[in-house]
Amino acid sequence: MNSTGERDRRPTPALVWVWLHDGRTLNTAPVSFQAAGLDRPSFHFRRLSSFGLRRRPISSWHKHGYVCFLLPSLDLTICQDVERNPGPLTHHSTGRANPPPSAISLADKPSSQAQIATKFYSRTDLLRLRSSGPSYLYQSSLCLLQALGIFKYRGCRAGKADKARKHAVHNILPISSSRRDCRSLNIQLVTSNGVNPSVLKPLRSLLSSSLSSNNLRFAICNARSIRNKVETIIDHAVGNDIGICIFTETWLNDLDSVCIADLSRHGYLFKSFPRQSNRSGGGTGILFRDSFDATLLDGKEHNSFEFSEWILKTTNRSIRIVAVYRPPNSSASVFLDEFSSYLENIVMCPEPLIIAGDFNFHMDLVHSNCAIRFKELLETFSLSQHVTMSTHISGHILDLIITRSTSDLILGPINVTLPISDHFFVECFIRFPSSSISTKSVSYRRLKNIDIDAFKSDITSSVLCSDTHWSNLGDLSKQYSSTLTEILDKHAPIKTKTLVTRAKIPWFNADVLQFKRIRRKAERKALKSGLSSDWLAYRKICNRYSALLKSTRASYYSDLIGQCAGDSGKLFKLVSFLCKGPNVNDLPPHDDPVLLANKFGEFFVKKIELIKDSISDIEVNPPYSDTAAPAVELDSFSPLSVEDVCNIISTSSNASCSLDPIPTWLVKSCLDVLAPSITRMVNLSIRHAYVPDDWKTAIVKPLLKKPGLELTYKNFRPVSNLTFISKIVEKAVLSQLFKHCEYNAPLPKLQSGFRRFHSTETALLKVQSDILMSMDHQEITLLVLLDLSAAFDTIDHQILLNVLESDFGIIGSAHKWFASYLSGRKQRVLINDRTSDDFHLNCGVPQGSCMGPILFILYISRLYHVIANHLPSAHGYADDTQLYLSFRPNDISSQDHAIAALEACISDVRSWLIYNRLLINDSKTEFLVVGSRHQLSKIAIDSITVGNSTIQPLNSVRNLGSWFDSNMSMSIHIGKICSKAFHGLYKIRQIRKFLSPESTKTLVHAFVTSHLDYCNSLLFGVPKYQTERLQKVLNAAARLIFRIPKFHHISSALYNLHWLPVAYRVHFKLLLLIYKALNNQGPLYIKEYLQPHSVKGHQLRSCDQGLLKVPRTNFKTFGDRAFARSGPFLWNELPLEIRNSPSVTIFKSKLKTHLFKLAYSLF
């Protein structure tokens, strides 16, 4: 009561109970506590082991409901008569902090503290103190505690009226930000008279640094090889929400792309800085969230340590992080000198600074001379080291986190968590904004949930199918699109969802989650007991958990590869994802995708205009190239039946265009109800010689020409994609066009592009055979490879229509259809699902269409007549043209005559192309002189002239994916193949742990044997040591599949795989080409080499054997290798039963069995 008789409402000093874990002795005394806004309430410390490791706050019940007081560990400022415990003792066998002994007697302390008394409370005393009941805080103090986030009130069961009462403060339990922080809750309590200034720290800065979501979890770890620990690292980083992690001893190098790609997923990116010297091991790296931008500023390997310096940026903040690794055998004196020199520069950086890594100093040994000198060095540069717990299994502090002494960058305690090697993860929070939660809006349709029968029923009852009297193609096309779009919106409407992008591990399943809980339980038990046996059990469970992660991940990716086995496109994308990480959007920097799309569209159009303008500035006299008109003309296209259209649709791929009303696979599913309408549209287009405008609009995606090129517009090529219906109409027209050309107006015989039974391999086989036969006749061949600039995009429509009419007899409605197809074409550029404006095209043919490449071949058909006026032979594959001329180097005049003839041919070719609005890229034309070493020594050809450029001869050229050298030895080609194949094997080797043997065989076929088999028909007769190079690749692939040790025999593995040796694979390819050519399934120029064996005037039994004539040659290394001789020679060696096989499938089966028996001596 006060002087006025009223009750004194001023709160009395709060009696606060603090529960601490000591493990042995209960030691408590009344002390004082000072905080901003607190009036120094007296409080007692109480220790009770049963509550030491509780993760949730202790709540007390009284008549006003539940009340709890949360106090984060180590956030208290203790003054006057309380100081921190020096820390737990370390158990060297486990590397973990064991519970400390009972309160240390002051008699064991230095004499300066001898007068401080320690008061021990018995159990009875503590129970008596417990019954003293709660007291109250001032309202201002309560508001401050609520604002600081360390006071929570759970509500009151007595009703709303009781909520206004004074909140009782009961037990305070130091609540850590992590379950592992409980190890740092040991406080030794002493009492004294007066204030000890040495233990005073600003309370506000500590209390205000609550570990909120705006701060970032930072970690360091010595991994001792990351390669086999990717699963554990990713699982720990995602599970603990680590924002930045520094790794030392990564043991990575530049070839570990798969490992780096594995870490650069699931919301994270990883950048490595390998050791710069030739020594193994070492290396540093940084793992960070993909919302950050990390840049390597510096990195070097000194004599005593190596480091990498990174700067991480967010929207408005940046931080500099230095990863340091000091090998344990390096000189400490040398390190201190070199590190001191480095610190002189780095400490002056303007950004917040963190230096972290493995320094290999025992910082826990207070008498260690190296540790003392290192601490002095840090003090010299005003730096502080924050790690106080053992980071190594030996119990020592080796991994350090260093910041500026004046910086408040480190928040809260530093914790030691998961053991990943002989080192633990060391983690803490730093005052750096974590990445904001990123969201994205996704629009989708639930296409898989569509009821196909109901979908068909709606189509049948729609106007599209009910009205069969459509006469206007434009109206029918619009009705087709609108009807299918409406029905699709009904069954699978577009839904938009805002997703929060979170790190997700795809192989993390229920079994892994359950075992992770077991691991956490074992860890809590070890933390609570501190026994060596519990820590050993925990380590064993960690190892088993890591093994489970590996096996689960392997099963996941093995299943994915098995699902992609039949789709090479998906298989390549999957392996590219595994080996290269997430797909990077290779586009120029931009903020607005629509603006970038418009810029691309303008660039593509302007590029064509510039080429056309440059062509117009050149005056040429076109060479004569008259062609006789075909006797039979194509006046119109025949209408198609429903069955014909169904066959075209069923054999088409499932690729769709964004302009299609429904996906292609859904069209095939509903083909029985849609086929009549599609057939009607195809026939209306053919009958009326009309192509609707929406069929002539292409979606263009800019693709980088080659990986690694600069992201500028000139390095991108446009790839068109048209609607599915337009492709169906094109295929219907093409089938009739090919049939007309086959019988009445043949396509150029020496043009192999985009033609049935033709390929790059048949084209190269023809050119190589001609050159080898010339070398066999002791001749030299001049080979020129022409390069055209944007050939498909500069075709003049009127010239093309004239060629179709005059050279191929396309007249009437058929000619009008092509005129409609070419006119009014448009394209839109697509970037990130956003399209540009429409850009009108008045020249060119779309490359992504079925018709475009064929029209280009027809367009340049007269070019081969121009070439024939100068050279006996040439060859083309689409816009790649090869000119070659052979001569015998008897004297200088023959050389000059050959060069003059070649240059005259090039000049006429160039003039004809310019006259027809095409342009040779003179500077990119390549020139190769081929011959034997003896014959090449007789000539001296310095260059040839191509337009305004002088082209010098090269030692080798790349020709349609193969490599020709000046001696036609194919050694460069074989070297390139081996390099590609072993690179593929290395990638597969890095992901082999994910794969089963069958999945590995699938990948080996896609990435290794496909390279070995490409154009291997060119390798017949090469020296044995060259084929052995390729055989080593095949052997290495077999070892990888079965995981056979290096020095074990490989023949049995090849036999079990049923793989032919490389030499027999060459024979198999050549014989297959011969069989197809003899049965009209190959190019005509290949069949011309295969003449039946006959003897004039005699009828021999060999005439009925199907044998071929083998021409005579002079040199085994030249003529015998040419297909003109090697093909008939190998064919005649086959048994008659195989040569007379009725089909290609049966021939391949019998041939494979025959060669397999020969290779492994099974006869």
Set out the fold topology.
Blueprint: E1 17-20, E2 30-31, E3 43-47, E4 60-62, E5 65-72, E6 90-91, E7 96-97, H1 123-130, H2 139-147, E8 151-153, E9 171-175, H3 203-207, E10 216-222, H4 230-239, E11 244-248, H5 257-263, E12 268-273, E13 284-289, E14 293-301, E15 306-313, E16 318-325, H6 332-346, E17 353-358, H7 369-380, E18 383-385, E19 399-404, E20 410-419, E21 424-430, E22 439-444, H8 452-460, H9 463-466, H10 473-491, E23 495-500, H11 510-529, H12 532-563, H13 568-580, H14 593-616, H15 642-650, H16 664-669, H17 671-688, E24 697-704, E25 716-721, H18 724-743, H19 760-776, E26 780-786, H20 797-806, H21 812-822, E27 825-831, E28 834-835, E29 839-841, H22 851-859, H23 863-868, E30 873-877, E31 880-887, H24 892-915, E32 926-930, H25 933-936, E33 944-946, E34 949-951, E35 956-959, E36 962-965, H26 971-990, H27 997-1013, H28 1024-1042, H29 1051-1057, H30 1062-1078, H31 1084-1087, H32 1123-1133, H33 1136-1139, H34 1144-1159
Helix pairs in contact: 5-13, 6-7, 10-17, 11-12, 12-27, 15-17, 17-18, 20-21, 26-27, 26-28, 27-28, 28-29, 30-32, 30-34
Would you write up a description of this structure?
The chain has about 1150 residues and is an alpha+beta fold. It folds into four domains: about 220 residues, Deoxyribonuclease I, Chain A, CATH 3.60.10; about 50 residues; about 375 residues, no CATH class; about 190 residues, no CATH class. It is built from 34 helices and 36 strands. The strands form nine sheets. Strands 1, 2, 3, 4, 5, 8 and 9 form a seven-stranded mixed sheet that branches. The chain has a six-stranded mixed sheet with strand order 12-13-11-10-21-20. Strands 14-15-16-17-19-18 form a six-stranded mixed sheet, with helices on one face. The longest helix has about 30 residues. The chain is globular. The termini are far apart. The N terminus is likely disordered. This is Putative RNA-directed DNA polymerase from transposon X-element. InterPro entries: DNA/RNA_pol_sf, Endo/exonu/phosph_ase_sf, Endo/exonuclease/phosphatase, RT_dom. Pfam families: Exo_endo_phos, RVT_1.
